[in-house]
Structures are given as C-alpha cells and as structure tokens.
Amino acid sequence: NFMYNPGAAGIANNNMIGISYRDQWSSFPGNPKTYMLYGDFSLNKMKAGAGAYIYRDETGPTSRTGIDLSFSKHIISLDGKKKLGLGLEVRGLQYAIDKSKINIDVQGDPVLAGSGNKFAFDAGAGVYYTNQKLSVGAAVSQLIQSKLEFGSPSNANQRGKLYRHYVFNANYKIQTGDNIYLLPNAMMRIIEHSPSEYEFGAMFNYKEKIWWGLQYRIDQFWSMQAGVKILQKIGLTYSYDYYQTPINVFTSGSGAHEIGIRFDLKSNSPQF
C-alpha cells in the first residue's frame, strides 16, 4: 500500500524487501517492461514507518527511471489495535528517449531535437487508517506538478508537467475459516486531464503461507494473482493481467505477466 499512499509506510509492522519484473504485451516489438526493487520498514521506537522503491520502465525507445522515499508518522491507540498514518513522500524521475532506436525521418520533431533526458522532482502526501479489520486511505502524488518537457513548440496551448494523482482505497479482513481470510478491496484513482480509474477485487489468505485473488479495473483488465511463502521468510508471487481494451485482438502476447520475490525480515510479518 505504501507505493500508492505514503501514510501506509510501515503501518502493517512489516520489515521486508522485494524485487519484481513485469512484461506486458509481448506481441509488440519494444513492449513495456518494468523492473522494481522495494522495501517497507517499521520504526517502532519512533512510532513511524518508512518505505522506498526504485523502478525502471522501458517501452520501445523511451524509458522512465524513478526513486520514491516515504515516511509515515503513526498515531496508535492505547490498545495498539488502531493506527493512523500521516505520510509524506519525495520522488525523483528521469525520462529518456534513446534516439538510436528511432529509424524514421523525424528531423522536424521538436521533441527529438532537444535533449534525450529530462529530470523532475516532486512530492506527495497521504493519510491511512487501519484497525484489525478495516483499512482506508487517501493520498495525492505529484503535488508540485513539476515541469516536464522534451520540446517547447511556440504554438503549444499547454506545457508538459506531472499532473496530480488522487488515490482512495479501502479493504476489509473477513475470517472465513480456520486460518483462512478473505480481503475484499476497492481503489479509485483520479488523474487530472485523464479518465478516472476504478478497481476492486478480493484476496484469499491461508495461514499466511498461500494467497490468491482476482482484481478488476473497470473497462481495462482482469488480474489473477497468487503467492506462496517458502522457507519461512521468502515469498514468491505471480500475476497475470488479461486486457479488455482493443489490445486483446492479438491472439497471443496481449496480456501481462509479473513475477516477484520478497524477503521478510521479521518472522511474524503478515502477507497482506
């Protein structure tokens, strides 16, 4: 959750690190790929938490590399069952165009006439509440709306910048049997000058050793997810996304696969 909401950093009392790789739309040359390294840490003595992730997106001749650092101050009830996290994040981004991968005549394109690398810095904030069953959060990222342009045509009506993202999410933990839990969830993302996104789903968790679930983002894709914990502190995860957009006219390679591995640094780290 801390990747969407800095208020959630460390609030689940986790200490963990992980890596993941995502491969999307493999039917296309230069299809999107994402590499990520992340960590979530509790700072119990400070009644706080911290999170960080580094990622790289590659799509054809373009790439995006970023780092995000989050810190959350926790307000905890006397019985320790209720927590409120107030979080801030800072992030740095590098957008790049590899001109050597473009083999058409675009000499008049102002985007390619300038530098192939652009940098931007921004910040975000979030609030996250959780008890032993219900969790809800609200966050905003790219608060500063930093300028980001590869070219500045004189007749442009609007300049490039990082637009704000607003994220609202909730989940609820339901015990359905001995050591079996169901976690329904919902998330809404509002992006300035873009269509809003609505996502919901559910995850089953068995003894915190096996988990599986299904997510649906309206008018975009279905996502099937599964994971298993081995050797007490190692979790393996896999997900497959099936797209409902026109991209799925391709009979093969029109989905997305993501694999990951994470290492729990505490033996009692929960898996959700």
Explain what you see.
The protein has 272 residues and is an all-beta fold. The protein has one helix at residues 110-113; strands at residues 15-24, 33-43, 48-59, 62-76, 83-97, 117-130, 134-141, 165-172, 174-177, 180-191, 197-206, 210-217, 221-230, 234-243, 256-264. It has a domain at 6-151 and 229-264: Porin, CATH 2.40.160. It has a 14-stranded antiparallel beta barrel. A hairpin with a 5-residue loop joins β10 and β11 (197-206). The model has no long low-confidence stretch (mean pLDDT 88).
Tell me the layout of helices and strands:
Blueprint (H helix, E strand, L loop, with lengths): L14 E10 L8 E11 L4 E12 L2 E15 L6 E15 L12 H4 L3 E14 L3 E8 L23 E8 L1 E4 L2 E12 L5 E10 L3 E8 L3 E10 L3 E10 L12 E9 L8
Antiparallel strand pairs: 1-2, 1-15, 2-3, 3-4, 4-5, 5-6, 6-7, 7-8, 8-10, 9-10, 10-11, 11-12, 12-13, 13-14, 14-15
Offer a quick outline of the entry:
The protein has 272 residues and is mainly β.
Q: What is the molecular shape?
A: globular
Number of strands: 15
In spatial order, strands of the major sheet run: 1-2-3-4-5-6-7-8-10-11-12-13-14-15
Q: What's the alpha carbon Rg, rounded to whole Å?
A: 20 Å
